[in-house]
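Final paragraph of the annual report: two paired records, presented back to back.
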Amino acid sequence: MGLFIGRGRKARRCYGFDEVALVPGSVTINPSEVDTTWKIAERQFSVPIMAAAMDGVVDVAFAIKMGKLGGIAVLNLEGVQTRYDNPNEVLDKIAKAQPEEATKLVQSIYVEPIKEELISRRIEEVKKAGVPAVVSAIPQKAARFASIAQEAGCDIFIVQSTVCSVKHISNEYKALDLHKFCTETKMPVIVGNCVTYEMTMELAKTGASAILVGIGPGAACTTRGVLGIGVPQVTATCDAASARDDYYKKSKRYVPIITDGGMRTGGDICKAFACGADAVMVGSAFARTYEAPGRGYHWGMATPHFNLPRGTRIKVGVAGSLEEILFGPARVDDGSQNLMGALQTSMGSIGAKDIKEMHRSEIIIAPSIQTEGKIFQVVQRVGMGK
């Protein structure tokens, strides 16, 4: 399998969102009558689009608003919200920094220690509003932070790293036993990130409630440039979905997969579901909302790394409210707003009455899908030509 890239060396061809398209179905459905709900550990959500655990995207207020709209916004337990009593002052500094100063400033800001009392406070603030509290931490901090989060009433805990593996070798610190963590933690646990069939299968066996798929595709992430690793999201999602389905056949336990990153428009999100995603996680689309704490800026989770930053601060601007981004009405014509409307309309055109039927959509390789007939849009830099 694969093509020769040199003598005795093969490489598999993989695909991203811009290289494929979805084929309409022989039966269509009224978009308002399709079912977009998804479940994680028997908890049901009407919006299958999650807001990523990034400081320019989610704070307490954003998490509350997202929860009231039927979705999930993930709070980063290692970000400014848990390091500073008044994170708004810090966020103002990041937004005002010159591009050449941004990474160094972010690194210095994240030197401030995480305060455990702030972890509890932030979760309690979200819970007080009557919406689910969902938080994220790296494996090295997961055990301690999960205990604090659970006591504060957290609903879902995410263990997230650039590359997640079940077998991690280290002489410097004790690796997290994912199987023990997932089975002993009383909250549903989402783990990630991964991009292969094999690792999805291994993570499913740990007892995880869901798995994040994606390494390096995010708008503010530089992992692919810094480390040279990653798999385009169409292929990564298809491979992970295949592992999920095979695991279900063997165990009768369904472990949802969440495509994380790389989706700029409603069309990209629709393709992710067609590839097999049960939900998606996006950052930059929500960083552009009025409610986002980033003030029109967005930066990667690994941007603050003291030695090898794998993210950058980007300017995304402010385009509309969270409700407009999710449900419209869209004010622009490029697919960056009314993401749920796009998903419902795509499902209706394909003839998929729910997310699982969307998984069976016909997908074609279509390298001209972004350019065919779009010369005027490209020249005028409007619509799909932006």
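The closing record of the year follows.
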Amino acid sequence: MRAADLLKIDETDRKILAALSRRGRSSYKEIGDAVGLTRPAVRERILRMEEAGVISGYSADIDTDALGRALHVMITFKFDPDRKYEKKPNDLLIPLLRGCADVLRFWEIFGELDFLIEAAFSSKDAMHTFLDRLREYGFVRSHLIAMTENTGPLREQEPV
């Protein structure tokens, strides 16, 4: 059973979640002003959603340019189905991804591809070196990110 099934999420909770997904460091007062609740009421709702597992954590949006890593890239990866691996393929790739400081995050995905990898590099040479290491395990496509915007997983719907 999902946490949201155990906890009744109402429209006000959805507005709080939308506010947190846009800016996770918002104060209880700022969120309260946006959703029409007092600071203590917002705090109580957020704590309840954290305890139920609806809110599982908070994260920071990192400006890769400010870190000196202007090459912000999304990489799609697929294992080579014709290759024999010495271990389970994921047991080879995941430590490589976790051990690379340029990898910001990654997702194992199902469908045509196996992994989606977000990385930021300080140079084209660093990017090519990493992509070559990935190619030892399978097929790689890289996509330079031109712009990002965090709309959050939940947001109030705007009329279309």
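The longest strand covers residues 71-79. This concludes the annual technical report; the extension proposal builds directly on these records.
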